[in-house]
Specification:
- There is one protein chain.
- Helices cover about 50% and strands about 15% of the residues.
- The chain is an alpha/beta fold and about 325 residues long.
- Helix 1 (about 10-25) runs antiparallel to helix 2, helix 3 (about 55-60) crosses helix 11 (about 240-245) and helix 6 packs parallel to helix 8.
- Strands 1, 2, 3, 4, 5, 6, 7 and 8 form an eight-stranded mixed sheet that branches.
- Helix 9 (about 200-205) links the parallel strand 5 (about 190-200) and strand 6.
- The protein has two domains: about 5-50; about 60-310, 2-enoyl-CoA Hydratase, Chain A, domain 1, CATH 3.90.226.
- It is built from 14 helices and eight strands.
- The relative contact order is 0.12.
- The protein is globular and about 70 Å long.
- The N and C termini lie far apart (about 45 Å).
Length: about 325
């Protein structure tokens, strides 16, 4: 398993336990007491390290290459997924996928940022950084959802919207701004979950929702820690300081009343037990779908407006 720097003591101990188990199997020597002692030590070490993560360490977990992505969650908790392509103006953006699916017996529209598992796929998916056509596609599909009275589930995982020249020429800022305005008026329940990175307008362009949740080790921020460090200290090496200053962790966001719920992850992160986090995510989304579906359209939009008018807690 790919390990982060602060996880090295855990990975070393896991490797040692595995070597002892293999040795026991091959040599037929009973080392069960030693293995049990090391497993107990490992459990304490995991709780000690993962129970005291700082902001920068959570950012690193949010970016873990083995962390489940949007298509992984769709495959684990939804059925009958049909992907919808294109913005009807320019192209199809593979960094932001949209489609129809079923969650339990509920027909929904689902969308989310998608990163790649290798270099080739990351180039195809643009590392999860959507172009204007991605946001226009998302809006087209959301308006279709309203037409057919389908609730919308959004899975956010992006470092930010793509800042290239082509994206700017095609109206990146306008595409995001239009989505912010129009999502306030889409008269169906919208649930957004930050499953990894929630970077700036790239995340917010599909993040206007009746319920906004963030996974325990995900982050949601106006700027990446590296970008903030480059602006404030002229050095990306100060990213850990920037992460702390930005208050971007799920726990901080909940305290500041910027989100509705922190979704707990398996110890060590979502990649440690994808099926467990998927089931947790499913139950929370289903809970909010039932809650929001009981509201009439007028009340739904009134509450969404009130939510964003009073968002945030100020000292």
């Amino acid at each position: 398993m790919h390990g982060l720097d602060f996880e090295k003591p855990i990975l070393d101990l896991e490797k040692k336990i595995q070597e002892l188990k293999s040795f026991t199997s091959v040599k037929k020597i009973d080392l069960s007491s030693e293995i049990k002692r090391l497993e107990e030590k490992l459990q304490h070490l995991r709780h000690d390290i993962y129970g005291n993560l700082n902001a920068w360490q959570r950012v690193q977990i949010a970016r873990h290459p083995q962390r489940p992505y949007t298509l992984d969650y769709i495959g684990m908790i939804m059925s009958d997924f049909i992907e919808l392509h294109g913005d009807r103006y320019f192209a199809d953006d593979k960094a932001l996928i949209t489609g129809l699916a079923k969650l339990d017996d509920q027909k929904i529209v689902v969308m989310g940022h998608q990163k790649g598992r290798d270099t080739k796929e990351n180039l195809q998916r643009n590392f999860g950084c959507a172009h204007p056509e991605g946001y226009r596609k998302a809006l087209r599909v959301m308006q279709m959802a309203e037409q057919f009275s389908l609730p919308i589930v959004v899975l956010i995982d992006t470092p930010g919207a793509y800042p290239g020249i082509g994206a700017e020429e095609r109206g990146q800022a306008q595409a995001i701004a239009v989505n912010l305005r129009e999502m306030m008026m889409v008269a169906v329940p919208i649930i957004a979950v930050v499953i990894g990175e929630g970077g700036s307008g790239g995340a917010l362009g599909v993040g206007i929702a009746d319920r906004v949740c963030v996974l325990e080790n995900a982050y949601y921020s106006v700027i990446s820690p590296e970008g903030c460090a480059a602006i404030l200290w002229k050095s990306g090496s100060r990213a850990p300081d920037a992460a702390a200053a930005l208050r971007l962790t799920a726990q901080d966001l909940l305290k500041m009343e910027l989100i509705d719920e922190v979704i707990p992850e398996p110890l060590g992160g979502a990649h440690r037990n994808p099926s467990a986090i998927a089931e947790t995510l499913r139950s929370i989304v289903v809970k909010y779908l039932r809650e929001l579906s009981a509201l009439d359209k007028k009340r739904l939009l009134e509450l969404r407006y009130e939510k964003f008018r009073k968002i945030g807690k100020f000292a």
